[in-house]
Specification:
Strand order of the largest sheet: 6-7-8-3-9-10
Largest sheet: 6 strands, mixed
Number of helices: 7
Order of helices and strands: EEEHEEHEHHHEHEHEE
Distance between the termini: 31 Å
Number of strands: 10
Strand content: 25-35%
Structural class: alpha/beta
Radius of gyration: 17 Å
Protein backbone atom coordinates (compact mmCIF):
# COMPACT_ATOMS: atom_id res chain seq x y z
CA UNK A 1 0.00 0.00 0.00
CA UNK A 2 1.27 3.47 -0.95
CA UNK A 3 -0.32 6.38 0.93
CA UNK A 4 0.32 9.90 -0.35
CA UNK A 5 -0.76 12.85 1.77
CA UNK A 6 -0.85 16.56 0.83
CA UNK A 7 2.12 16.51 -1.57
CA UNK A 8 3.37 19.93 -2.65
CA UNK A 9 6.29 20.47 -5.03
CA UNK A 10 7.69 23.54 -6.75
CA UNK A 11 10.95 24.42 -8.50
CA UNK A 12 12.95 27.59 -7.98
CA UNK A 13 10.28 29.30 -5.92
CA UNK A 14 7.83 29.36 -8.81
CA UNK A 15 4.18 28.35 -8.62
CA UNK A 16 3.80 24.78 -7.34
CA UNK A 17 3.86 21.96 -9.89
CA UNK A 18 1.97 19.76 -7.42
CA UNK A 19 -0.68 21.36 -5.25
CA UNK A 20 -1.60 19.17 -2.31
CA UNK A 21 -2.10 15.69 -3.80
CA UNK A 22 -3.47 12.97 -1.51
CA UNK A 23 -4.37 9.44 -2.60
CA UNK A 24 -3.66 5.76 -2.01
CA UNK A 25 -2.46 2.95 -4.29
CA UNK A 26 -3.23 -0.64 -3.39
CA UNK A 27 -0.52 -3.26 -3.39
CA UNK A 28 -0.55 -5.21 -6.67
CA UNK A 29 -2.65 -2.60 -8.48
CA UNK A 30 -2.11 -1.46 -12.07
CA UNK A 31 -2.40 2.33 -11.94
CA UNK A 32 -2.24 4.76 -14.84
CA UNK A 33 -1.63 8.44 -14.11
CA UNK A 34 -3.21 10.33 -16.97
CA UNK A 35 -2.68 13.96 -17.85
CA UNK A 36 -1.62 16.44 -20.50
CA UNK A 37 1.94 17.69 -20.89
CA UNK A 38 2.76 20.04 -18.00
CA UNK A 39 0.04 18.68 -15.73
CA UNK A 40 2.55 17.50 -13.12
CA UNK A 41 2.16 13.77 -13.70
CA UNK A 42 5.87 13.04 -14.25
CA UNK A 43 6.86 15.09 -11.20
CA UNK A 44 4.33 13.12 -9.18
CA UNK A 45 5.80 9.85 -10.48
CA UNK A 46 9.29 10.98 -9.46
CA UNK A 47 8.10 11.75 -5.93
CA UNK A 48 6.17 8.48 -5.64
CA UNK A 49 9.28 6.54 -6.65
CA UNK A 50 11.70 8.41 -4.41
CA UNK A 51 13.63 10.07 -7.22
CA UNK A 52 12.61 13.49 -5.90
CA UNK A 53 11.52 14.80 -2.53
CA UNK A 54 8.34 16.80 -2.01
CA UNK A 55 8.49 20.27 -0.49
CA UNK A 56 5.90 19.05 2.01
CA UNK A 57 3.66 16.07 2.57
CA UNK A 58 4.31 12.35 3.05
CA UNK A 59 4.79 9.29 0.83
CA UNK A 60 4.27 6.15 2.89
CA UNK A 61 5.13 2.65 1.81
CA UNK A 62 3.33 0.66 4.49
CA UNK A 63 4.63 2.33 7.69
CA UNK A 64 7.69 4.09 6.25
CA UNK A 65 7.58 7.69 5.00
CA UNK A 66 10.22 7.77 2.27
CA UNK A 67 10.09 11.58 2.19
CA UNK A 68 11.86 11.52 5.56
CA UNK A 69 14.60 9.05 4.66
CA UNK A 70 18.22 10.14 4.40
CA UNK A 71 19.84 10.14 0.96
CA UNK A 72 21.56 6.82 1.67
CA UNK A 73 18.34 5.27 3.00
CA UNK A 74 16.40 6.51 -0.02
CA UNK A 75 19.00 5.05 -2.39
CA UNK A 76 18.74 1.71 -0.62
CA UNK A 77 14.94 1.85 -0.75
CA UNK A 78 14.97 2.38 -4.52
CA UNK A 79 17.57 -0.34 -5.02
CA UNK A 80 15.57 -2.91 -3.06
CA UNK A 81 12.01 -2.04 -4.02
CA UNK A 82 11.45 -0.18 -7.28
CA UNK A 83 12.12 -0.48 -10.99
CA UNK A 84 12.08 2.37 -13.51
CA UNK A 85 11.23 2.60 -17.19
CA UNK A 86 11.55 6.12 -18.61
CA UNK A 87 11.32 7.82 -21.99
CA UNK A 88 15.11 8.17 -21.85
CA UNK A 89 16.91 4.86 -21.95
CA UNK A 90 19.79 5.48 -19.51
CA UNK A 91 21.79 2.55 -20.86
CA UNK A 92 25.52 2.24 -20.24
CA UNK A 93 27.12 2.69 -23.68
CA UNK A 94 30.15 0.52 -22.88
CA UNK A 95 27.99 -2.48 -21.97
CA UNK A 96 26.17 -4.75 -24.39
CA UNK A 97 22.50 -5.74 -24.11
CA UNK A 98 23.19 -8.72 -21.88
CA UNK A 99 25.33 -6.75 -19.43
CA UNK A 100 22.90 -3.80 -19.26
CA UNK A 101 20.03 -6.14 -18.40
CA UNK A 102 22.18 -8.13 -15.99
CA UNK A 103 22.76 -4.96 -13.98
CA UNK A 104 19.13 -5.07 -12.92
CA UNK A 105 19.07 -8.86 -12.56
CA UNK A 106 22.07 -8.89 -10.22
CA UNK A 107 20.25 -6.65 -7.74
CA UNK A 108 17.63 -9.40 -7.31
CA UNK A 109 19.85 -12.44 -7.83
CA UNK A 110 17.80 -13.20 -10.94
CA UNK A 111 19.52 -15.83 -13.09
CA UNK A 112 16.65 -15.96 -15.61
CA UNK A 113 17.29 -12.55 -17.15
CA UNK A 114 18.04 -14.02 -20.58
CA UNK A 115 14.40 -15.17 -20.75
CA UNK A 116 13.34 -11.54 -20.33
CA UNK A 117 15.70 -10.46 -23.13
CA UNK A 118 14.09 -13.10 -25.32
CA UNK A 119 10.59 -12.01 -24.33
CA UNK A 120 11.19 -8.40 -25.41
CA UNK A 121 12.47 -9.60 -28.79
CA UNK A 122 16.19 -8.94 -28.40
CA UNK A 123 17.59 -12.46 -28.25
CA UNK A 124 19.51 -11.92 -31.50
CA UNK A 125 20.93 -8.58 -30.25
CA UNK A 126 22.25 -9.79 -26.91
CA UNK A 127 25.88 -8.91 -27.70
CA UNK A 128 25.08 -5.58 -29.37
CA UNK A 129 25.96 -2.25 -27.73
CA UNK A 130 23.44 0.61 -27.31
CA UNK A 131 25.05 2.58 -30.13
CA UNK A 132 24.31 -0.31 -32.49
CA UNK A 133 20.60 -0.40 -31.64
CA UNK A 134 17.63 1.62 -32.82
CA UNK A 135 15.76 3.84 -30.36
CA UNK A 136 13.00 1.27 -30.01
CA UNK A 137 15.51 -1.49 -29.34
CA UNK A 138 17.24 0.61 -26.69
CA UNK A 139 13.89 1.18 -24.99
CA UNK A 140 13.30 -2.57 -24.94
CA UNK A 141 16.69 -3.04 -23.24
CA UNK A 142 15.72 -0.53 -20.54
CA UNK A 143 12.40 -2.33 -20.06
CA UNK A 144 14.14 -5.71 -19.76
CA UNK A 145 16.62 -4.29 -17.25
CA UNK A 146 13.83 -2.94 -15.05
CA UNK A 147 11.86 -6.20 -15.17
CA UNK A 148 14.96 -8.29 -14.46
CA UNK A 149 15.26 -6.50 -11.14
CA UNK A 150 11.97 -8.10 -9.97
CA UNK A 151 10.71 -4.86 -8.40
CA UNK A 152 7.91 -4.58 -5.85
CA UNK A 153 6.75 -1.46 -7.69
CA UNK A 154 7.40 -0.78 -11.36
CA UNK A 155 7.28 2.89 -12.42
CA UNK A 156 6.89 3.72 -16.09
CA UNK A 157 6.96 7.14 -17.77
CA UNK A 158 5.55 6.97 -21.33
CA UNK A 159 7.23 3.56 -21.87
CA UNK A 160 6.00 3.06 -25.44
CA UNK A 161 6.77 6.57 -26.71
CA UNK A 162 9.74 5.41 -28.82
CA UNK A 163 8.19 2.13 -29.97
CA UNK A 164 6.25 1.24 -33.10
CA UNK A 165 2.73 -0.13 -32.64
CA UNK A 166 3.60 -3.81 -32.92
CA UNK A 167 6.50 -3.62 -30.48
CA UNK A 168 4.57 -1.34 -28.13
CA UNK A 169 1.69 -3.78 -27.88
CA UNK A 170 4.12 -6.67 -27.38
CA UNK A 171 5.92 -4.91 -24.54
CA UNK A 172 2.71 -3.85 -22.78
CA UNK A 173 1.34 -7.38 -23.08
CA UNK A 174 4.51 -8.83 -21.57
CA UNK A 175 4.51 -6.36 -18.66
CA UNK A 176 0.88 -7.24 -17.94
CA UNK A 177 1.64 -10.96 -18.12
CA UNK A 178 4.40 -10.57 -15.52
CA UNK A 179 2.10 -8.39 -13.43
CA UNK A 180 -0.45 -11.20 -13.30
CA UNK A 181 2.15 -13.86 -12.53
CA UNK A 182 4.23 -12.00 -9.94
CA UNK A 183 1.81 -9.45 -8.52
CA UNK A 184 4.02 -6.35 -8.35
CA UNK A 185 2.45 -2.90 -8.41
CA UNK A 186 2.50 -0.91 -11.66
CA UNK A 187 2.36 2.89 -11.75
CA UNK A 188 2.46 4.23 -15.30
CA UNK A 189 2.41 7.83 -16.50
CA UNK A 190 0.95 8.50 -19.93
CA UNK A 191 -1.08 11.00 -21.89
CA UNK A 192 -2.57 8.14 -23.92
CA UNK A 193 -6.20 7.52 -22.98
CA UNK A 194 -6.10 4.18 -24.82
CA UNK A 195 -3.41 2.76 -22.53
CA UNK A 196 -5.44 3.91 -19.51
CA UNK A 197 -8.07 1.35 -20.56
CA UNK A 198 -5.63 -1.41 -19.55
CA UNK A 199 -5.36 -0.26 -15.93
CA UNK A 200 -7.32 -1.24 -12.86
CA UNK A 201 -7.18 2.32 -11.54
CA UNK A 202 -6.86 5.62 -13.42
CA UNK A 203 -5.75 8.84 -11.76
CA UNK A 204 -6.30 12.02 -13.79
CA UNK A 205 -4.04 14.95 -12.92
CA UNK A 206 -4.63 18.50 -14.10
CA UNK A 207 -2.65 21.60 -13.08
CA UNK A 208 -0.94 19.76 -10.24
CA UNK A 209 -4.11 18.43 -8.64
CA UNK A 210 -6.04 15.18 -8.79
CA UNK A 211 -8.98 15.84 -11.10
CA UNK A 212 -10.50 12.33 -10.89
CA UNK A 213 -9.83 8.79 -9.73
CA UNK A 214 -11.81 5.89 -11.18
CA UNK A 215 -11.61 2.13 -11.63
CA UNK A 216 -12.09 0.36 -14.95
CA UNK A 217 -14.76 -2.33 -14.54
CA UNK A 218 -12.97 -4.36 -17.19
CA UNK A 219 -9.38 -4.04 -18.34
CA UNK A 220 -8.55 -4.27 -22.02
CA UNK A 221 -5.48 -6.12 -23.22
CA UNK A 222 -2.63 -4.53 -25.17
CA UNK A 223 -4.15 -5.95 -28.36
CA UNK A 224 -7.66 -4.62 -27.69
CA UNK A 225 -6.88 -0.93 -27.12
CA UNK A 226 -6.64 1.68 -29.85
CA UNK A 227 -3.20 3.01 -30.79
Amino acid sequence: MIEVSDIVKSYGGRNPVLRGISLSINEGDFVVILGASGSGKSTFLNILSGLERPDSGSVRYHASDIAKLSDDELTRFRKENVGFIFQQYYLLPNMNVEKNVRMGADLAGNMEFREIIKAVGLEDKIKKYPGELSGGEQQRVSIARALAKKPNVLFLDEPTGALDEQTGRQILAYICELHRKIGFTIVMVTHNQNIAEMANTVIKINSGKVAAVYANETQKTAYEIGW
